[in-house]
Amino acid sequence: MFPWTKRDAAAPLPPAAIPRDGGIPWQGAGLTATDVDLPRGRKGTKLMHCVQLTTSDLTVTMLHAEILELLDGRISMVDPMGASPDVFLCNAVGVDAAATAGRASEAGKWMAVFPADALALMVVPVSEPPAAVMSGSDVASFSAWARKLAK
Fold first, then answer.
1. Which branch of life, at top level (predicted)?
2. DSSP state of 118
3. Residue 139: enclosing H or E segment and its boundaries?
4. Distance of alpha carbon 31 from alpha carbon 12, whole angstroms
C-alpha cells in the first residue's frame, strides 16, 4: 500500500495531560487542581505547563501562566487548552462580560449572589449556574498553590 493510507487511517488521539513530579493537587470548593504538562507540537515532544481542573462532571486543562494572570487581575477569563468542552475560568469581571454577551436575564439568578472576590468555573450556556465557585479562603489557598508551582 501507499504510505499515506496508513497515516490517514490512524486518527490522532487528543494529547493526554502528564502529571508533574512532586505536585500535590489542590482541593477546595468542589474542585481539584492538578499540576500537569500537556504535550504539544507534531510529535508531542514540547510540553506546556498547565493546570488541570476537575469537578464531579468535567475535567479541563488550562495554561498555568494564564491562571497566574487571572489571579493577578491582568485578565478576567481563561479558556481551556485543546478540545475541551465550552468551559472557562473567570473572575467577577469575566462573569459580568459573559452575562452581558447574551440576554441580561440569562445569568440573573446566580449573578446576584456571586461574590466580588470569587473565581467561577463557568459552563456555556451561561444561563446555567457555574460548575464551581471559589471565594475567600479558597481563592487565597488556590492562589498560593498556583504560585508555588515550578514554572
1. Bacteria
2. -
3. helix 137-148
4. 30
35 Cβ contact partners less than 8 Å away, ≥ 6 residues apart:
19, 20, 23, 25, 49, 51, 64, 149
Please report where in the chains the cell 492538578 appears, as a residue.
Answer: 34
What the block records as the C-alpha cell of 83 is: 478540545
By the 8 A CB rule, do 90 and 100 touch? Answer: no
The 10s digit of each residue's pLDDT in 57-96 is: 999 999 999 999 999 989 988 999 876 668 889 887 766 6
Positive or negative: CA dihedral 138, 144, 150, 151 = positive
Query: Scanning the structure block, which residue is given the C-alpha cell 504539544?
Result: 40
Half-sphere exposure of 41 (CA within 13 A, CB side): 8
* Contact indicator for 63, 80 with CB cutoff of 8 Å: no
Residue 69 is inside which H or E element, if any? helix 64-72
Evaluated on CA atoms 105, 117, 25, 16, the torsion sign reads positive
DSSP per residue, 10-54:
SPPPPPPPEEPTTPPPEEETTEEEEEEEEEESSSS-EEEEEEEEE
* 22-53 tens-digit pLDDT: 778 999 989 999 999 988 877 778 899 999 99
